[in-house]
Design goal:
Elements (H helix, E strand, L loop, with lengths): L7 E8 L5 H9 L7 E6 L18 E4 L8 H17 L8 E5 L6 H10 L3 H4 E11 L3 H7 L1 H8 L3 E5 L5 H14 L4 E4 L7 H4 L12 H16 L1 H7 L6 E3 L4 E8 L5 H15 L3 E8 L9 E6 L2 E2 L3 E2 L10 E8 L3 H11 L10 H6 L10
Parallel strand pairs: 1-4, 1-5, 2-3, 2-4, 5-6, 6-7
Antiparallel strand pairs: 8-9, 9-14, 10-11, 10-14, 11-12, 11-13
Helix pairs in contact: 3-9, 5-6, 11-12
């Protein structure tokens, strides 16, 4: 008889849209302590972006991009974990020392936790080593007021990593106080101070729901019922349009793709128009855009709750797909207006829609109008 293999430590990395999960993940996979780590990234949308922005983990990155991971746990996530195990058991992969699952920012962690702790096979082969929740000090209070998922992400955490703290003393104190009310006794690590090290983030598990609040135990008990009975809901989740994913009646995600490259000025014009015309309704914008002045050096565009960072040039395209791609996630968005902006930026010609000059160079254009 073969000796059972010890379970592989698995860390769940969560946090609301734009909190800084990918930034933290990049720091971790570059650290020798995270050698031989497999990374599974879920994205809310059909065009994967985040996996392109993650440094290559030694045994690769698996991207799940067919919707929110909390709604597809019976499908892609289970298959991805089983595929990793088969690769190890069949010696196609030499060794996996750790798995990290980065959830989409809109994921409710309760269904994922139920899967990882109750699945008859996966719970034997993986040990939930800790739940890491990244919290954005800039937007945390408003996010918690508006989104139940953000509350749950903090409530289940073993470690909270505070990002974007900077010099925001009052905001940081208020965020930490609220986080500790939601999750008494949780360890809070400030990423800006270098506290989010591999040593500080690992070895938290195994996950113990009894050590959390009564709400966490109730969420997991509810998920047990859903897992056994709600097959109709599962079917509905996978019947959405291919290019639009909805997490509720107001939040939607869609992807915009073009074979063209854009002038640098047009990219900045696009960012300005998105900020002015769509503002806080934009929960998350992320993309890689080809640059007309230098097609071999794409620009990374990122925005969180209507605030955009300056575009960053990558040294090269991260994969063989050199199309310009932009993923937009937001609440009550005017998809047609945003699509018109993107198409004009990329120089696409559409019937009955303004071109790039008509939108960005027209001295008679009315501010705030895109069509």
């Amino acid at each position: 008889m073969k000796t059972p293999k010890p379970p592989i430590p698995l860390s769940l990395l969560t946090g609301f849209l734009g909190a800084g999960k990918t930034t933290l993940l990049n720091r971790l996979v570059r650290d020798p302590a995270f050698a031989k780590t497999a990374v599974i990234i879920n994205e809310f949308g059909d065009v994967a972006i985040d996996n392109l922005l993650v440094e290559r983990a030694e045994d690769g990155v698996i991207a799940l991009a067919s919707g929110c991971v909390c709604c597809t746990i019976r499908g892609e996530l289970v298959e991805a974990l089983e595929r990793l195990l088969r690769a190890v058991d069949n010696r196609r992969i030499d060794e996996i020392r750790r798995v990290v699952i980065e959830t989409t920012g809109l994921a409710d962690p309760a269904p994922i936790l139920y899967l990882l702790t109750r699945h008859p096979y996966l719970s034997l082969r993986f040990r939930l080593d800790g739940i890491i929740t990244v919290v954005d000090a800039v937007h945390a209070m408003a996010t918690l007021d508006a989104h139940e998922e953000a509350i749950r992400q903090i409530a289940v955490a073993d470690r909270i990593v505070l990002s974007k703290s900077g010099s925001r003393g009052a905001a940081v104190e208020a965020t930490m106080a609220r986080a500790r009310r939601l999750n008494p006794g949780v360890t809070v690590l400030d990423a800006e101070k270098g506290e989010a090290t591999p040593t500080a983030l690992t070895g938290c598990g195994p996950f113990d729901p009894d050590a959390k609040g009564t709400d966490v135990r109730r969420w997991l008990a509810t998920e047990a019922f859903v897992d056994d009975h709600d097959h109709e809901h599962e079917a509905d989740v996978h019947d959405h349009d291919h290019d639009v994913n909805r997490h509720d009646d107001h939040i939607a995600a869609f992807a915009l793709v073009s074979d063209r490259a854009a002038p640098r000025r047009a990219v900045f014009d696009l960012i300005d128009r998105l900020e002015v015309e769509h503002g806080s309704r934009l929960l998350r914008v992320k993309g890689i855009l080809g640059l007309a002045e230098n097609p071999d050096v794409p620009l990374v565009v990122q925005g969180v709750q209507g605030i955009f960072s300056p575009p960053i040039a990558l040294p090269a395209w991260p994969d063989d797909d050199h199309r310009s791609r932009l993923v937009v996630i937001g609440r009550d968005l005017d998809r047609r207006a945003i699509t018109t902006l993107f198409d004009a930026t990329m120089g696409e010609v559409r019937i009955d829609t303004p071109d790039r000059a008509g939108l960005f160079d027209n001295p008679l254009a009315i501010p705030g109008r895109t069509q």
